[in-house]
């Protein structure tokens, strides 16, 4: 068993992003700008946004913060995001999710201009991932792909099982892995004979949101734990599976740092592209 350190890989990505942000500022006279939108006072969301803003500042990215009250309506949130989409001083937009239950989250996501969707949450970005067209990857799936690349995991011809089907994690990571010639099976918490299916996988991505949900794998499999539950527990039973896996991500220190690194990298790419400085030919995945 070997650990896949997202912390180490993310540090390398962020160092390069910081250099690119500095070059952008030298050429344009301003820093790349990431606007973060938070609705309500959910403690975890407040913490996440604060962390992302701090990381942005360290990378030389301006951070704009829009904090809306819990009772904000869908229409009000869409209006605020539309303003940011139309603001030439904003390069990337992050809507911290989940939003309060009374808000139509999909409508809010779709108010983000595709050119500023650095978190990869819009239908436009999903289509770009599915068709291997230029665009922005969903930050966590994109981070997972970069982590696999950093550890030289060749997906071609391999069987990848994704446990989870959310539109910003399970489904997009399946599309990105398919684009790398993996054979992909998408499962979820209601899949029958799930353990049997997971045991056939060369690569397992756990993204179901249930602590220690994955308890059995094929010996030698690569295990990516994209879950984060109370008590720093992932979706994989790490203690039970660590010795069986050839590579496995820890929680924390695995997928989490990669998500933020990709968000910052894509913000600088968005700024560079919008400023028309260079032809940024990044293809998602």
TrEMBL record:
Residue stretches making up the Tetrahydrofolate dehydrogenase/cyclohydrolase catalytic domain: 4-119
Name the residue ranges with Basic and acidic residues bias.
9-26
Q: Pathway, according to UniProt?
A: One-carbon metabolism; tetrahydrofolate interconversion
Q: Which UniProt keywords apply?
A: Amino-acid biosynthesis, Histidine biosynthesis, Hydrolase, Methionine biosynthesis, Multifunctional enzyme, NADP, One-carbon metabolism, Oxidoreductase, Purine biosynthesis
Q: Which residues form the Tetrahydrofolate dehydrogenase/cyclohydrolase NAD(P)-binding domain?
A: 138-274
| InterPro entries for the chain | Aminoacid_DH-like_N_sf, NAD(P)-bd_dom_sf, THF_DH/CycHdrlase, THF_DH/CycHdrlase_cat_dom, THF_DH/CycHdrlase_CS, THF_DH/CycHdrlase_NAD-bd_dom
Q: Does the keyword NADP apply?
A: yes
Q: Which reaction does it catalyse?
A: (6R)-5,10-methylene-5,6,7,8-tetrahydrofolate + NADP(+) = (6R)-5,10-methenyltetrahydrofolate + NADPH; (6R)-5,10-methenyltetrahydrofolate + H2O = (6R)-10-formyltetrahydrofolate + H(+)
Q: Which family does it belong to?
A: Belongs to the tetrahydrofolate dehydrogenase/cyclohydrolase family.
Q: What does this protein do?
A: Catalyzes the oxidation of 5,10-methylenetetrahydrofolate to 5,10-methenyltetrahydrofolate and then the hydrolysis of 5,10-methenyltetrahydrofolate to 10-formyltetrahydrofolate.
UniProt-recorded name of the protein: Bifunctional protein FolD
Its taxonomic placement starts with: Bacteria, Bacillati, Actinomycetota, Actinomycetes, Pseudonocardiales
State the gene name recorded for this protein. Answer: folD
């Amino acid at each position: 068993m070997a650990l896949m350190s997202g912390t180490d890989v993310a540090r390398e990505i962020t160092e390069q992003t910081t250099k690119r942000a500095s070059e952008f500022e030298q050429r344009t006279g301003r820093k790349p700008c990431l606007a973060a939108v938070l609705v309500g006072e959910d403690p975890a969301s407040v913490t996440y946004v604060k962390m992302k803003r701090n990381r942005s500042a360290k990378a030389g990215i301006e951070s704009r913060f829009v904090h809306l009250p819990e009772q904000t309506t869908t229409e009000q949130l869409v209006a605020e995001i539309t303003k940011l989409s139309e603001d030439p001083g904003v390069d990337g937009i992050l809507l911290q999710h989940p939003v309060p239950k009374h808000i139509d989250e999909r409508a809010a996501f779709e108010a983000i201009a595709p050119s500023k969707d650095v978190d990869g949450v819009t239908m436009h970005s999903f289509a770009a991932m599915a068709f291997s067209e230029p665009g922005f990857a969903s930050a966590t799936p994109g981070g997972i792909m970069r982590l696999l690349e950093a550890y030289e995991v060749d997906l071609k011809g391999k069987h990848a099982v994704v446990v989870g089907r959310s539109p910003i994690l399970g489904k997009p990571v399946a599309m990105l892995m398919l684009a790398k010639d993996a054979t992909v099976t998408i499962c979820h918490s209601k899949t029958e004979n799930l353990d049997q299916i997971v045991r056939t996988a060369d690569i397992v991505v756990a993204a179901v949101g249930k602590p220690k949900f994955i308890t059995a794998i094929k010996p030698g499999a690569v295990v990516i734990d994209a879950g984060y539950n109370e008590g720093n527990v992932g979706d994989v039973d790490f203690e039970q599976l660590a010795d069986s896996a050839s590579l496995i991500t820890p929680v924390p220190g695995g997928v989490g740092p990669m998500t933020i690194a990709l968000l910052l990298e894509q913000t600088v790419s968005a700024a560079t592209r919008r400023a028309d400085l260079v032809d940024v030919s990044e293809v998602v995945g």
